[in-house]
Specification:
By secondary structure, this protein is an alpha/beta fold. It folds into 2 domains: about 1-70 and about 360-400, Urease, subunit C, domain 1 (Roll); about 75-350, Metal-dependent hydrolases (TIM Barrel, Alpha-Beta Barrel), CATH 3.20.20. It is built from 15 helices and 18 strands. The chain has helices at about 50, 85-95, 105-115, 115-130, 150-165, 185-195, 220-230, 250-255, 270-275, 285-290, 295-300, 325-335, 340-345, 345-350, 380, and strands at about 1-10, 15, 25-30, 30-35, 40-45, 55-65, 70, 75, 135-140, 170-175, 205-210, 235-240, 260, 280-285, 305-310, 370, 390-395, 395-400. The chain has an 8-stranded parallel β-sheet. Strands 3-2-7-16-17-18 form a 6-stranded mixed β-sheet, with no helix packed on it. It has a 4-stranded mixed β-sheet with strand order 5-4-1-6. Strand 12, helix 8 (about 250-255) and strand 13 form a beta-alpha-beta unit. Helix 4 crosses helix 5 (about 150-165), helix 6 (about 185-195) runs parallel beside helix 7 (about 220-230) and helix 8 packs parallel to helix 9 (about 270-275). The radius of gyration is 21 Å and the shape is globular.
C-alpha cells in the first residue's frame, strides 16, 4: 500500500503512455490515479484503490466526471522569449511571398530594444497561455539577440521564468539562429564568435541549437557550433532541413543529437541514420502548414524513428501557444493517427528531451496531467479549434480550471 496526498477519480480514460493499460497508449478505462509529493504513485482501476492506496486526510481529490485524462503536454520546440510582432510579414506570406530566415532579424531588432522586464512579462504571458492549453513542460530557446550580452540576457529571462512559473522549461542556447546585420557577408566570422560564447551558457542552458538551412548556416558551420556546445557540456538539438535538404539531418545523426527539428525535407537514408543514432524527429505542424509542406512522418516511422510533436511557438511562422492546434493539424495532414499524435506530444517529446519523468502517467513520473473536456482523448484531433484542457494539474496541484 502506498500513501498519497492527491487522488484523481472518475476518469473515462487515463492515458498513461506506458505498458500499464490495454493498448499502445496504455489507456486505463474508468481509471484512478494517486500521487504523493508531486509524483504519481499508483494508477489503476477504481475497484483496487482501497487496497492499494492510503489517502491523507487533507489530500486533494479531483473528480474527472467521466472525462479523459492525458499526460501534461510536452512542447519540444518553442521560441518563448522575444519582443515585437511580424504580422506584416505573415500577411505578405499569406498573399504569396516565400519565407526565408531573414524575418528573424526583425524580431532581433525589437528584442534588443526591449527592456529585460518587458521580455520577462511577455514570456510570462505566453507561458500562462501554454499552461492553460495543457502544456506542462516546454523546451524554450534563445536566438533573438544574436550577440553574447543579449543572448545571455535571454537565458537569464528564461531562468527567472522557470524559477517562478509552474510551467517547467528546458532551456536551449540558440545564438546561431540567423546572421546578424553587423556580420553581413561574414558568416564564418560570426560562427567563430559563437563558438567562443558557448562556455558562457554552461549552467544557464541544458541544450545548444543551430539553424542549419539555406539563408542561415551550412552543415560545416553548424557542426562547429554544436561541437563547441558539446565541449561546454550542453546537449545537442538542431533546426534541420526545414527549408531545403541542408545537410542538417545527416549532421544530427553524426553528432548523436537528441533531436532534429522540422525535417520537411528528409530522405529514407537520413531517416534511417537518425533512428540508428537515437535522434528524435521533432515535427512542427503549425509551421509546416504555413510553409505549405509537411514532414513525411510515415517515412520516419517506417525507418524506426521516434517522432515528437511541437508547437514551434515563434513570432514568424507559428504564433500559437496551443499545442492542441498542432495535434489537430498532425492528425489531418501528416499521416499520423490520434494515438500517435498524442504520444508524440507527450512521451515522444519527453524522449527528445531525454526525460523519463514527464510525458507519462506512471509511478515515479511527475503528476502532470490534463483533464480534457471530452470523454475520449481522440477529441484532441477530432474536436479541433477549441481548448479542450478543462483542468490542468502540475505536480499534483491544480493550476487551471
Amino acid at each position: 500500500m502506498v500513501r498519497a496526498d492527491f487522488l484523481l477519480t472518475g476518469a473515462s480514460q487515463i492515458v498513461t503512455c506506458s505498458e500499464i493499460g490495454q493498448d499502445a497508449l496504455g489507456v486505463v478505462t474508468k481509471g484512478t490515479l494517486a500521487a504523493a509529493g508531486g509524483e504519481v504513485v499508483w494508477v489503476g482501476d477504481q475497484s483496487q484503490l482501497a487496497s492499494a492506496v492510503e489517502l491523507d486526510e487533507d489530500a486533494t481529490v479531483v473528480d474527472a466526471l467521466g472525462k479523459a485524462v492525458v499526460p501534461g503536454f510536452v512542447d519540444a520546440h518553442t521560441h518563448l522569449v522575444f519582443a515585437g510582432q511580424r504580422r506584416e510579414e505573415f500577411a505578405e506570406r499569406a498573399a504569396g511571398r516565400s519565407y526565408s530566415a531573414g524575418g528573424i532579424l526583425d524580431t532581433v531588432s525589437a528584442t534588443r530594444a526591449a527592456s529585460t522586464d518587458e521580455l520577462l512579462s511577455l514570456a510570462r504571458a505566453r507561458a500562462d497561455a501554454m499552461l492553460r492549453h495543457g502544456t506542462t513542460t516546454a523546451e524554450a530557446k534563445t536566438g533573438y539577440a544574436l550577440d553574447l550580452e543579449g543572448e545571455l540576457r535571454l537565458l537569464s529571462v528564461l531562468t527567472t521564468l522557470n524559477d517562478s512559473h509552474p510551467l517547467d522549461l528546458e532551456i536551449t542556447f540558440l545564438p546561431a539562429h540567423a546572421l546578424p546585420e553587423e556580420f553581413e557577408g561574414r558568416p564564418d566570422d560570426f560562427i567563430d564568435e559563437v563558438v567562443g560564447w558557448m562556455p558562457s551558457a554552461k549552467g544557464l542552458a541544458r541544450w545548444c541549437d543551430v539553424f542549419c538551412d539555406i539563408g542561415a548556416f551550412d552543415a560545416d558551420q553548424s557542426a562547429k557550433v554544436l561541437d563547441a556546445g558539446k565541449r561546454a557540456g550542453l546537449g545537442v538539438r538542431i533546426h534541420a532541413n526545414e527549408l531545403a535538404s541542408s545537410g542538417g539531418a545527416g549532421l544530427a545523426a553524426r553528432m548523436g543529437a537528441a533531436s532534429a527539428d522540422h525535417l520537411l525535407y528528409l530522405s529514407g537514408a537520413e531517416a534511417s541514420s537518425l533512428a540508428m543514432a537515437g535522434t528524435v524527429g521533432v515535427v512542427c505542424p503549425v509551421t509546416a502548414l504555413g510553409l505549405g509542406r509537411f514532414p513525411d512522418v510515415p517515412l520516419m516511422k517506417a525507418n524506426g524513428m521516434t517522432v515528437a510533436l511541437a508547437s514551434d511557438f515563434n513570432p514568424g511562422t507559428a504564433y500559437s501557444e496551443n499545442i492542441q492546434f498542432a495535434i489537430a493539424i498532425a492528425t489531418r495532414a501528416m499521416g499520423i493517427g490520434p494515438s500517435e499524435a498524442l504520444f508524440a506530444a507527450t512521451k515522444g517529446a519527453a524522449d527528445s528531451l531525454r526525460r523519463s519523468d514527464i510525458g507519462r502517467l506512471v509511478p515515479g513520473a511527475k503528476a502532470d496531467m490534463v483533464v480534457l473536456a471530452a470523454e475520449d482523448f481522440r477529441d484532441l484531433g477530432y474536436h479541433a479549434g477549441v481548448n479542450l484542457a478543462e483542468v490542468v494539474i502540475k505536480g499534483g496541484s491544480i493550476y487551471c480550471l
